[in-house]
Amino acid sequence: MWTRAAVDMVAGLAKDPELWAGRAAALTDANAAVFDAANGFAGCIAGVHEVLRRQRLLEGIWCLDPDEGLSPGQAEELTRVSGAAAHTAPGGGNRRVQAQAG
């Protein structure tokens, strides 16, 4: 979870409790894509690296194990969740980063 998003979500809870449920579901969906829950977490390190790459904080998604990488379909899932909920998505709602995704 991204720190700024967490602070904003907690502040918003007091104002609109129903909003919390939707954002919680979106955050869970985003975390599933990043940590590769659909593939037994096989691409979790590469998924975190891919989020950082999309934020221009890493140049690539290299791992210590050269055979480790994103699972099939994981990049597409990251792109999907990035577009679905900008406030919780990988990239933290940065439209410039989201436009680069994929």
Structural topology:
Elements: H1 3-15, H2 17-35, H3 44-54, H4 74-84, H5 95-100
Helix pairs in contact: 1-2, 2-4
Task: Please characterize this protein's 3D structure.
- There is one protein chain.
- The protein has 102 residues and is an all-alpha fold.
- The protein contains five helices and no strands.
- It has helices at residues 3-15, 17-35, 44-54, 74-84, 95-100.
- α2 runs antiparallel to α4.
- The longest helix has 19 residues, at 17-35.
- The radius of gyration is 14 Å and the shape is elongated.
- It starts with a helix and ends with a helix.
- Mean pLDDT is 82; it is low at 92-102.
Give the helix proportion (percent range): 55-70%
Instruction: Give the terminus-to-terminus CA distance.
Output: 21 Å
User: Could you say which structural class the secondary elements and strand pairing correspond to?
Assistant: mainly alpha
Tell me about the largest β-sheet. Answer: none
How would the global form be characterised?
elongated
pLDDT average, as an integer? 82
Based on CA atoms alone, the radius of gyration comes out at: 14 Å
Which strand-content bin applies to the residues?
A: under 5%
Question: How many E-type strands?
Answer: 0
- Tally of helical segments: 5
Would you list the SSEs in sequence order as H and E? Answer: HHHHH
Poorly predicted runs are 92-102
